[in-house]
Amino acid sequence: MKQKQLAVIGGGAAGFFAAVNAAKMNPALKVILLEKSNKLLSKVSVSGGGRCNVTHHCFEIGEMIKGYPRGAHFLKKAFHHFFTTDTIRWFEERGVALKAESDGRIFPVSNRSETIIACLLKEAGRYGVDIRMNAGVKEIKMNEEQVPRTGDKRFNICFSDSGSLDADFVCVACGGFPRLSQYNWLQSAAHHIESPVPSLFTFNMPSNAITGLMGVSVEKTVAKIAGTKLMAEGPLLITHWGMSGPCILRLSAWGAKELAAKEYHFTLLVNWVPAFPEQELRKMWPAWRQQYGAGKIYLHHPFALPARLWHYLLQQSNITETLRWSELLSAQQNTLIQLLTAAPFEVKGKTTFKEEFVTCGGINLSEIDVNTMQSKKHPGLFFAGEIMNVDGITGGFNFQHAWTSGWIAASAIARMAGT
To answer: Measured between alpha carbons, how far is 269 from 194 in angstroms, rounded to an integer?
Structure first.
């Protein structure tokens, strides 16, 4: 009997996890991993500032799926097969100790992404995964009709620089793409592809005075997109090009499609003091005026805001450095309250968050069997990771999807390949 062969397309987290687990589960299966570039696990390398945010510290599926703007219903089922607890156990069984931080992100104790990369490469070597670099794929040809009759391989993978590879099983785990045209080589599979648009990006505010506060961060904020229902809360960071931080990144993820339709031109409303609803703020203001009285507004205030941001808001409200609380005019007070609770900022463009590009879009989930990650249209064709229409917010959610889908695909392929 000819040795069964699996080709995994993509040398990222999902591809590696599918490859090493399939090879381990079925030693008789020949596993070949194809990477189009000359670098493996590139996103693993840069994730979490070079520390690799392996997963999220959450052990309830119902809570975990709240971190996925797209694909939550699909993952609710998938997570029953392989969840955060399984990810932690998988790495720790291979000598990689993990730790959880206060915000829920889980990293290797070493604080080095190389620890995760070394673990996956070691597993690949241990189970004989054949890794081929600079192996870009331009087409997958399918021989579905004649396979049952002839026993030939189901798939013929054609490479960009000529040459091809036959395989019984193919797992597509090549990540997301910024442009639909980059999916062209998958068109022969006749799968419906949700048009890809960027997710997890920061907001550009060219020539806005707020950029002068570069480096200032606020722990608790609420940000909204004017004219929509899009809203997110969390820490916000002011940068030299605009705004970033978990709050903005979450907003970009949930609003990926809507913001793309706006061509990234919109008004952002930031509440710097969400602990004080506007109406409550107005009720408390007279008491603060009395409390601080002759004190200068620049020096005395009840808000836990960075001094540079407080001074910026006062300047925007036409309040001078010498003005005392007792001297504050009604117009100045109203402007300041407005800026504290709903400061408007014109956004004109986006910037990818570091190198952690994530795509909203991909293979339509209705065409994938959640229990195997196999195509419902083509037996033997599987998907894992970001190639599917699943994406999460920052915090380890995208990697957990990669591990889960890779493991499920590996299990199904190993079982189907037999011995």
So the answer is: 29
- Do 69 and 170 fall within a single domain? yes
Token pair, residue 331, equals 């117009």
The pTM (predicted TM-score) of the whole model is 0.92
Task: Tell which wins on pLDDT, 269 or 183.
Answer: 269
pLDDT at 286 over 80: yes
Among 283, 288, 306, 293, which Cα is nearest to 236's? 306
List the end-to-end C-alpha distance of the chain, in Å, as a whole number: 10
Alpha helices (runs of H) in 144-196, residue ranges in sequence order: 147-150
Domain ends where: 352, 387, 409?
352
Task: Give me the pLDDT at residue 178, please.
Answer: 60
The three-state (H, E, C) secondary structure of 190-219, written as one string: CCCEEEEEEECEEEECCCCHHHHHCCCEEE
* Model confidence pLDDT, tens digit, residues 11-38: 999 999 999 999 999 999 999 999 999 9
Q: Which helix (H) or strand (E) holds 100?
A: strand 98-100
User: Is residue 374 domain-shared with residue 307, that is, in the same domain?
Assistant: no
Token pair in block for residue 295: 């004190």
Indicate if 157 and 24 belong to the same structural domain: yes
Q: Could you give the 3-state DSSP secondary structure of residue 286? A: helix
Q: Are residues 231 and 125 part of one domain?
A: no
Give me the domain span that covers residue 9.
5-197+359-417
C-alpha to C-alpha distance for 325 and 288, rounded to whole angstroms: 8
- Shared domain check, 114 and 64: yes
Of the candidates 324, 207, 321, 340, which has an alpha carbon nearest to the alpha carbon of residue 271? 340
Task: Mark whether 77 and 119 lie in a shared domain.
Answer: yes
Please tell me which residue, 403 or 161, carries the higher pLDDT value: 403
* Cβ 272 vs Cβ 343: under 8 Å: yes
CB distance 25 to 412 below 8 Å: no
Q: Are 393 and 304 within one domain?
A: no
Number of structural domains (the chain) is 2
* Beta strands 5-9 and 169-172, pairing class: parallel
CATH code where residue 106 lies: 3.50.50.60
- In this structure, the answer to whether residues 19 and 164 fall within a common structural domain is yes
Q: How would you class 337 by CB atoms within 10 Å of its CB: exposed for 0-12, middle for 13-18, buried for 19 or more?
A: middle
Give the pLDDT mean for 126-144.
92
